[in-house]
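Example 3.2
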Amino acid sequence: MVAGSCTANGEPHGFVRAARGTITTFDPQRSIDTQAYAINSDGVVTGYYTDLGGSHHGFVRAADGSITSIDVSNADDTLARALNVSSVVTRNYYDFDFVSHGYYYSPDGTATSFDPAGSVATFAFGIDAQRGITGNYLSGADSRLHGLLYTP
């Protein structure tokens, strides 16, 4: 299976392509721009969408087509980009001061925020089967970008 984003009728939609070539497009409710980024072996898809007000929300699309929005507490925008075989999602969110923080979202609906010590901006990009999260962060002490490996 493959997941991604496409434009149909001038509007961006998420899609899933089955092994036999069938393509199914989808959009979370209230979406005007759906960006699908990752799919796991169970057919679960993650990404984010933009609503009519311009805010971003992460989402998880189950193999049965049901979609759950991800909104981290105290977030202005929530993005989602990677998931593992257990359907744990990761990426970053922006708070109301537009500071980026890492988070991971568990299948039980819990979103947990994280930032390395000294971080002024955290970005998570990948997650493995053991929940090891990779990405980078900007250090406030030396204003340099550092690699990130975080394991909850």
